[in-house]
Amino acid sequence: MFRRTSLLGAALLALTWLSTFALGAPSAGCGRSTNLRNQAYSVNVNGRNRQYMLRIPNNYDQNRPYRIIYLWHPRGGSMQKIVNGEDPNRGGILPYHGLVPHANESAIFVVPEGLNQGWANMNNEDTAFFDRLVETVESQLCVDTSLRFSTGFSWGGGMSFALACARPKMMRAISVLSGGLLSGCQGGTEPVAYYGQHGTRDSVLNVGMGRQLRDQFVRNNGCQRPSFEPQPNGGRSVRTDYQGCLPDKPVVWVIHDGDHNPSQVDAGSNTPFAPKNTWDFFAQFQPQ
Ligand SMILES: *[C@@H]1O[C@H](CO)[C@@H](O)[C@H](O)[C@H]1NC(C)=O
Description:
The chain has 288 residues and is α/β, with parallel strands linked by helices. Helices cover 28% and strands 21% of the residues.
């Protein structure tokens, strides 16, 4: 009897242990105190100093594996302009693309600074920068490495796309706002959950460029292609959830009738739809 009880106890303990630790992939930074703050830092990447800024959740808990979002600025932008936001008359970029209120202190943000204000990713130097950031930040902060995300507008979308191509296993999902093939695509054959949005009147990166990126992950993710190309409904955006995608590899596409704009709103609304769409897309993923 004693034996049976202790076996049962051991099994229960094992189950408890499994349910506590088996899900999620805590980074080396979990359980460690940190000196990192919400400020600019630099790392050396192939002999160059590269800058980035951090936003760490209020009441950061070193034992809680957080979601982490890498957020790449557009051409001519900067990490500071992502952190502070930009004059709506000059592109209308919300601070952190409007994600902070949605994240409700449940995500760490990493905002890198491009060379020459962009992400040409020459010889994969920006992919290497990303690798260094993962190493550096995630060894000092507690991150669930199964909940790593990337997003950006325009060239920042192109950079997120490049990472989905080159680092598919590191990226749970990406969100590409009015992006194009601007930072290359090494590899690019593996599935990554994909959110994209683009305007039919985009005067900087034609909507066809956004569709091209989307279609690569429609294919990679094994989704069915609809028989027609979704169009906006006048001033309202139209959302398409692709069907038949591999488990955990959804593709969502939002087409609107606007220009090159990360803060596009629907007719009759004052609220840009990108922030909630991106957050909801990322938040559906659970630790694994
Ligand atoms: C934000 O998170 C806190 C703590 O986890 C929770 O109590 C609160 O309800 C959340 N707020 C929203 C708007 O989700």
